[in-house]
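Researcher: Checking consistency across runs. Here is phosphoglycolate phosphatase again:
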Amino acid sequence: MASRLRVEAVLFDLDGTLVDTLPDITWCLNQVLLEHGYPALTAQTVRGYIGGGTTAMIERVATQFGIAHAIALHQRYVTLYQHNLVQFSRPFSGVLELLEGCRQLQLPLAIVTNKSEEMALQVSRTLLPQNAFGPILGHRTGRSLKPQPDVAWEAARRLSVDPQRCLFVGDTEIDLKTARAAGMYSAAVTWGYGLTHTLQAQAPDFCCEQPAGLLRILQQVCGTAHAFTEHGDTAKSY
């Protein structure tokens, strides 16, 4: 007999899941590279560097160009990006409708990101509906980065929901590993920055091509058990 799946809260990644921040990240990173005498990177290349936090991204760039000491690069990027967070960034198409649907379902929501918490707060408050989320948790001193589960557990605790009743939604394998480590259901979204085959290799509970598909899934699993395939959005059997 299929086991019962019930979702009582949703934890969202930010970059690549709710908001397309790639244009601003690419622009700022290329400005810094040009200032230091290095060629600009394509958005597709930068896209592959997103997910593990700013430090990890800069380390990958430094490795690519053979930069021995990336501290100055990192400091300049952070300063520039802080002043250009929402120059070009926008919510992905369908995300605002997804969040409205979650509101109608009375689902508590949180954001869990490896972006600095200060930046995450500014992006979400500027581009996403006010009061849509409870905790907005990003990287800060003393807090582990995803895929360590601590920040996901903190979000569940603040929402007063059992982690086993939370759905963690993200666009990279880091998000799916976080969900697994935290004992949460996982939803991979393919409209963001992760590669579909990489996401599917993590065996997420759900895989969604569009925000509308994720909303349909949430409408199905809020308190009930369902297994279905619809419009390219897939779920395991429960």
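Researcher: Does this match what you'd expect to see?
Model: One thing to look at in this run: The beta strands are 9-12, 19-20, 90-91, 109-116, 136-139, 166-170, 185-189, 206-208, 229-230, 233-235.
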